[in-house]
Amino acid sequence: MITNPLGRRRELLLTAPELRRRFSTWRGERPFWAGLFTFAAGWPILYWPYAHLDLGGVPLALSTTSGAGSLVIGILLLVLGIALWYRPHLRVFAGIATLLLALISFPVANFGGLFLGAASSLIGGSLACAWMPPTADEPSSDRTAPAVLKGEGRRGT
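Request: output the structure for the sequence above.
Response:
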């Protein structure tokens, strides 16, 4: 016999705002978008040299001698993207390494993953180099701050 029809789903619905707030705080303390663009840049660079497409019955293979170079560049971009998320103090090194890998991927990895990986890694590397950690004197983006701090506490004065 089922005593709780919603089961675990109700508990998850109650904790979803807390998880969203924690993720927003975590994202604000690191170069999240730089890591996301860098991580996403690794996939097309890894994919195209090993893909075998069929366009209207005509086989198209982009596999060249750049397979090993694409593998190394793609994996390095994936690792740099994760490093930007979990080691934000390495942002300048990871940003410069990402920019260099983007430039190297043009001749080595099929025009940088048909320009998708190269463009994404150029954006990610630029964002990583430009990102600055938040300072202590900046106001918090926390939505659960007391109403007095938001100016809603004293309406009569």
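The chain has a mean pLDDT of 81.
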